[in-house]
Amino acid sequence: MNITILLRHSGIWVSNVNYEGYKVDGTVVGESISFMNLKALILAELEIGGVRKDIKIRYIVDENTCPLKIRNDMGVKLYLEVRRNEPGIGIDECGWTLISSCKKKFDVFKVRYFNNEHMCPMRDRILTKVQATVEFISGVTAPKLFNHKRIHTPQDVIEDIRAIYGNEISYQQTWRAKERALEMLKGKPSEGYEQMPRYIWMLNNMYPNSYIRMQKTENNQFMYLFITLRPLIRGFDYCRPVVVVDVAHLGGAYK
């Protein structure tokens, strides 16, 4: 079951119960969402970098009580239970109806009955029809890829979208979204090779008299990069005459 929520943000608390000058965004969450996933969802929805900024999540039960803070999973469950029990007309009770029929061998249809009166809230008509596009998924995934040591597989992304939004996405969508998120954070792999001469120039300035050589093909394609810094060269003066050469194989987009 999905639950629609409105996000009021970028405002000022003028009192314990009054929040003014805010902006409004909307989103949809699954009923089993965790606190960390809710926080990541809000950061992605508001396009806030989760590494440098933190947020405080509050909600108002009624106009006469102070807002309650959501600090953990139990706070999320309590909020969702309050939202689930709010009075109002749901989509199932809305009277909007369209009945039509199509004749054989024709590409047109005939409207037989149409009731254009909506009784459900506007947010229920819009926010419950979430489309998980590659751009949307990449925005949700990007904050979790800041730390390169953290392993976040496509299956983890599928489970995140299912837990946060209650939507099912394909493995292909997930793979493309993760690649898009990594491109947003680190740029394209080809752009990294374009920065190689600058990297070599900085190493030569930081470590003079080092041995740094980059080999390219006749077509100006990268082959290999050999780096021996001056401090390492000096260290060989105190070592036995045994040489071990290590190699780092390419594991990215270009092998």
TrEMBL record:
Protein name per Swiss-Prot or TrEMBL: Uncharacterized protein
Native source organism of the sequence: Solanum commersonii (Commerson's wild potato)
Lineage of producing organism: Eukaryota, Viridiplantae, Streptophyta, Embryophyta, Tracheophyta
